[in-house]
Specification:
By secondary structure, the chain is mainly α. The chain is built from nine helices and four strands; from the N terminus they run H-E-E-H-H-H-H-H-H-E-E-H-H. It is about 65% helix and about 5% strand. It is found in: Cell inner membrane.
Amino acid sequence: MLSRFLVAIAAMVAVVAASNFLVQFPVDAMLGGVNLGDILTWGAFTYPVAFLVTDLSNRAFGPQRARLVVVAGFAVAVILSIWLATPRIAVASGSAFLVAQLLDISIFHRLRNGAWWHAPMFSSLVSSALDTVLFFGLAMAPAFAGIDALFGMEDSSLAFPAPLLGIGPEVELWQSLALGDFLVKLVMAVLMLAPYKTIRDLVLRKMPVAA
């Protein structure tokens, strides 16, 4: 039990630290006539795995220990993020991560006795929406440029114009990135159902599962 609990913490730390680094890099590719750099960062593909780790921890250990996984992962990941990313991204990531993951645990716990896919699906969708708003607002919106100033850094806000999702009306780049990120999270929430069920069935059934 302890070893699996430590694995869950290590997995959470790895996912968040990697995502905080990769979110700094837009996807430099074209899809048809759409510049994906106006829509996505590479972090959009790794961060949703954090919800998988949280949901599996919740299913295996119960909400109390799942919160410990989140808090432990949060503490270590913020330290790593300061090293791998900018202070502003570390603050934004830490705030969004903690609030969204705790919300995910609460929603999952309320739905855990329903169909196997209800809890991971709906908890991830709602929490991902909150996570996206908090992260991109704090990390890239001009309203929070004071975070950069607090650390003696230049304004890193992404407020210059870009077409929404590469094809729509012009908006501030951070808004297009946020919407693109959320759409990827919607897709990833569905894709994560397969590993969730597989791990739950093949691994977690071998240990006592929290009610």
